[in-house]
Design brief:
345 residues; mainly beta; Porin; 16-stranded antiparallel barrel; two-stranded antiparallel ribbon; 2 helices; 2% helix; globular
Length: 345
């Protein structure tokens, strides 16, 4: 890990200079690299792959012990991915401006099931699964309450839930480019402990206002775009078990348009020791369209995974099978195996 220290964040974070005062901040450069060998049923070609990521993480302190931070993430080949500015207060909770992170509101709970490595839908087989993101994929502001009785409430808001990430002094999209307007998310997260049993119960909902017209085109929406998610994870010593469900209603009324999505997932993981873990997970997704002969399409998958970590180096393996991947009716079964070596620095 490389550190660039003793820089005032005024040179790195623009408007934060007004609150950084005389307190020096710190900027870190962190990264990781992934080498993979992927085998997909019926697919030939180069199986070796590589990905490198870099992130710039800065933090500082205000008077009274309150802290702020900024993260700018760059994905493979140093392409900008996401960023956030976070203010952690002593008594009022956490405030965050998030751009494209996907974790704001219910987006942080799209699939929180126990696993040794990746989600079932992201373990080597392309699924094109639709996940409930709320305002998480748009630029949004969120507030998370202080933890009270093992419970937090997060409220996230996007003035235009259109999936854009504007630069400063600019706006996203253009006239008629999106039917989505203001979006709101709320998530209740409860984490009580019952002796040796750890519990994580979460429930959240999202609604986005949407208009019937997109320029000259009539969209025929009958109400707000709505999404919801709920799940439970239990930690029993080295064993973690969990299940969750989510749904999305588009309020579409035009024949052939997607009317709703419904997702469920389950996971079980065992930490054999501090270095080795194994898991089994399942996922199911249903897509329904308006007034079509074949109205519903269901795809489902399962994945067995193993992960071994030693310091900043990890060796991971996943064997994954999906049926009707990419919502293709009678698409058969696709089998994928992936071996990964990752290094963090």
């Amino acid at each position: 890990m490389k550190k660039i220290t003793k820089y005032g964040l005024s040179a790195l974070c623009g408007s934060l200079a007004a609150v950084s005062g005389a307190n020096a901040g710190e900027m870190k450069v962190v990264g990781n690299a992934h080498l993979t060998w992927t085998s997909l049923q019926g697919v030939t070609g180069q199986p070796l792959g590589m990905k490198t990521n870099l992130s710039f993480v800065g933090n500082g302190e205000l008077d009274g012990g309150q802290t702020f931070s900024v993260t700018v993430a760059h994905t493979d080949q140093n392409a900008w991915s996401s960023s956030n500015i976070t203010l952690n207060t002593n008594n009022l909770g956490t405030f965050k401006l998030s751009m494209a992170e996907g974790g704001g509101g219910i987006g942080g709970y799209d699939d929180n099931m126990p696993r040794a490595w990746e989600e079932t839908w992201d373990a080597g087989v392309g699924t094109n699964i639709n996940l409930q993101k709320g305002v998480g994929s748009s630029t949004n502001l969120s507030w998370t309450t202080p933890r009270i009785a093992a419970t937090t409430l997060q409220i996230a808001w996007s003035p235009e839930n259109d999936g854009t990430q504007p630069n400063d002094k600019s706006v996203g999209g253009s006239a008629g480019s999106s039917t989505y307007w203001t979006g709101w998310d709320a998530v209740l997260n409860i984490n009580p402990s019952w002796g040796a049993i750890g519990t994580n119960l979460f429930v959240g909902g999202s609604f986005t206002e949407q208009e019937e017209h997109n320029g000259a085109s009539l969209q025929r929406k009958t109400g707000n775009h709505e999404e919801a998610v709920a799940g439970l994870v239990l930690d029993l010593g080295p064993i973690s078990l969990g299940g969750q469900g989510s749904a999305e209603s588009t309020k579409a009324s035009t024949a052939g348009d997607v009317e709703y999505y419904g997702n469920t997932s389950f996971g079980a993981a065992l930490n054999i020791n501090d270095n080795l873990s194994i898991s089994y997970s399942e996922a199911r997704s249903v897509k329904s369209t308006v007034n079509t002969i074949e109205q519903k399409v269901e795809m489902s998958g399962d994945s067995v995974q193993v992960a071994y970590t030693l310091g900043g180096v990890a060796l991971k393996f996943a064997d994954t099978k999906w049926r009707n991947a990419k919502y293709t009716r009678a698409g058969g079964t696709t089998d994928g195996k992936i071996l990964s070596l990752s290094m963090a620095f």
